[in-house]
Specification:
23 strands, mainly beta, globular, 4-stranded antiparallel beta sheet, single chain
Length: 317
């Protein structure tokens, strides 16, 4: 039960934890130009009870393109992938079947939640971002993101800083390494290098994901290498390398469950208004996602409850 949370979590009774999942198994022929149907699940962080489920219908992107309709052969092999690419490790082959997955649930500074979804197709990958009112479930608009370096690139994570910069993690290979930190222009629907932010360079043989903003305006995330250890990382845009002038990626702690290293990456991270870090994970690969509390000092994650969603987030009040 979530009622067993640490004392400081009780003070956040005004907070609600949001989860999102794809609603339908079918992939639409016009999926590159619209967001998938989703379901928002709202849980109370004190009682642990699920308070509501909100169906959010798909929405056509504002910057649609007319040459990306999928044919029947591509759709016949389609599926929804609720696991995303977080179990992928360097060296695995790239999947080419048509599939729909949610890669990020991101609190924006205006109080909305951004749902990043990727449809992977044999002809390329397409990233869309929908802005959702978390209180009503209204889909306020959707944008397709272009400008990636390859047609197999995907947006695997997204975070909004307090000064409204959108920073994402792009994969060059359908959710697998190498990864790159990029800027996102949501209004224009473009990915960019965000040179003015001087973002750090990522190691090419590691997976990076699950960006989330902490109370101190420091970005947290996870990283996993071929050795399999999952670490909590942070990116402080105000902490620059002396030589390059770029922000640095630093390791906070290695994550463990019951004093054992995690075999799979975390599926999603969320930080409450009080600063408590939550993780969504399926450590034993049972096909059931669960919510965990993360101890930032020890790296221990503690089971809270089953929570069968794809991504989690707290909205900004």
């Amino acid at each position: 039960m979530l009622a067993n949370l640490p004392r400081r979590a009780y003070a956040q009774s005004e907070s609600q934890l949001y989860g999102v999942q794809v609603a339908k198994k079918e992939v639409a022929t016009d999926a590159p130009n619209k967001t998938p149907d989703t379901v928002f699940v709202v849980a109370d962080t004190v009682t642990g009870k699920e308070t509501s489920r909100i169906s959010v219908p798909s929405r056509q992107v504002s910057n649609l393109q007319t040459d990306t309709k999928l044919d029947s052969v591509e759709i016949d092999n389609a599926q929804v992938d609720n696991t995303d690419a977080s179990r992928g490790v360097p060296g695995k082959s790239v999947l080419t079947r048509t599939r729909e997955r949610i890669t990020s649930l991101t609190p924006l500074t205006d109080g909305t939640l951004a749902v990043v979804s990727v449809v992977n197709t044999p002809r390329g990958n397409f990233t869309r971002v929908a802005q959702i009112n978390p209180k009503t479930g209204e889909n306020l608009g959707a944008t397709r993101i272009s400008g990636f370096e390859t047609n197999s690139s995907t947006l695997e994570s997204l975070v909004a800083t307090k000064d409204n910069n959108l920073i994402g993690i792009a994969s060059f290979s359908d959710g697998l390494p190498p990864f790159k930190l990029i800027g996102i222009d949501l209004k224009g629907g473009k990915a960019n290098n965000a040179e003015r932010l001087a973002l750090p360079t990522l190691f090419p043989n590691r997976r990076y994901s699950n960006l989330v903003l902490g109370r101190d305006n420091v970005i947290y995330g996870t990283s996993i290498g071929s050795e399999g250890s999952v670490v909590l990382i942070k990116i402080d845009l105000n902490d620059r390398a002396a030589i390059t002038g770029r922000a640095k990626v630093t390791t906070v702690v290695e994550l463990q469950l019951d004093n054992k290293d995690l075999e799979n990456d975390i599926l999603s991270l969320a930080i409450s208004p009080g600063g408590q870090i939550y993780a969504l994970a399926d450590p034993a690969s049972k096909g059931t996602n669960s919510l965990f509390i993360v101890d930032e000092k020890s790296g221990a994650i503690r089971f809270v409850r089953d929570f069968q969603v794809d991504k989690i987030a707290f909205a900004i009040a």
